[in-house]
Specification:
This protein is an all-alpha fold and 234 residues long. It contains nine helices and two strands, in the order αββαααααααα. A two-stranded antiparallel sheet has the order 1-2.
């Protein structure tokens, strides 16, 4: 029986040097092959889902330039949203706020002030420059409720692309202020398009509060049965 090299007894349970290196290399390959994502806080997102782990941001169902919406089961609703945003933005804004979760009178409480600001801005300045100051918080509410990215790009996505402003995405308050400013800029410079995008998003996610989803059972009484003269009873 040959003596072990180096005077040490080899054990079949202990991996050899070559096997240990192969195992280490395979582990590094698996780690490199893991998909990389980004959470709402700008942190890498792994495979597993851990309790308390930040949830990744969602994308809007349609882009801000998709005026006619998408070719799906909501195409007729998207066309209605496009017409309202073009000719009656006050009604579309009131409907959007009502769908977010407002109570009775929400439509009128938002539609009427918007109409006043719309008329005042067009009469004094020639364009709708006052109503966006009143309507942009609805976009922020939609983005927070559904965990959506800002339209002009989230702060963490901007940081990954340019490599700056890292301290901003680590501070939740500063990041939220930045994205709220993006919401205002979207409403101010692309007002009609932003209202239409919010309307399409809400109609795909939430039913209108005026329609009840409960099924109604209708009881139909039986018809009166008569016996003719020609019938015989045995």
């Amino acid at each position: 029986m040959a003596a072990p090299v180096g005077g040490e007894e080899a054990s079949p349970l202990l991996p050899t040097k070559g096997a240990a290196e192969e195992k280490k290399g395979a582990g590094e390959k698996r780690q490199d092959a893991a998909p990389r994502g980004w959470t709402a806080d700008g942190l890498p997102l792994g495979n597993g889902s851990v309790v308390g782990e930040p949830v990744a941001r969602s994308q809007w169902n349609s882009s801000i330039c998709a005026c006619l919406g998408r070719n799906d089961e909501f195409c007729s609703s998207d066309l209605e949203v496009c017409l309202l945003g073009s000719f009656a933005p006050c009604m579309l804004y009131g409907s959007n706020v009502e769908r977010i979760g407002g109570g009775p009178g929400t439509f009128a409480n938002h539609c009427l002030p918007y109409t006043g600001l719309y008329l005042l801005g067009n009469s004094l300045f020639g364009w709708n420059c006052l109503a966006p100051w009143f309507s942009y918080p609805s976009r922020t509410a939609i983005r927070r409720n559904f965990n959506l990215e800002a339209c002009c790009g989230s702060c963490e996505a901007f940081t990954r692309s340019c490599g700056c402003c890292k301290g901003m995405i680590e501070d939740e308050e500063q990041r939220e202020n930045c994205e709220s400013a993006c919401d205002f800029a979207t409403h101010f410079f692309c007002h009609a398009c932003s209202l239409c995008q919010e309307g399409r998003e809400l109609r795909r996610r939430l039913p209108h509060p005026g329609f009840s989803s409960r099924s109604v059972l209708v009881m139909i009484p039986p018809t009166e049965q008569t016996m003719g003269r020609g019938m015989q009873i045995n």
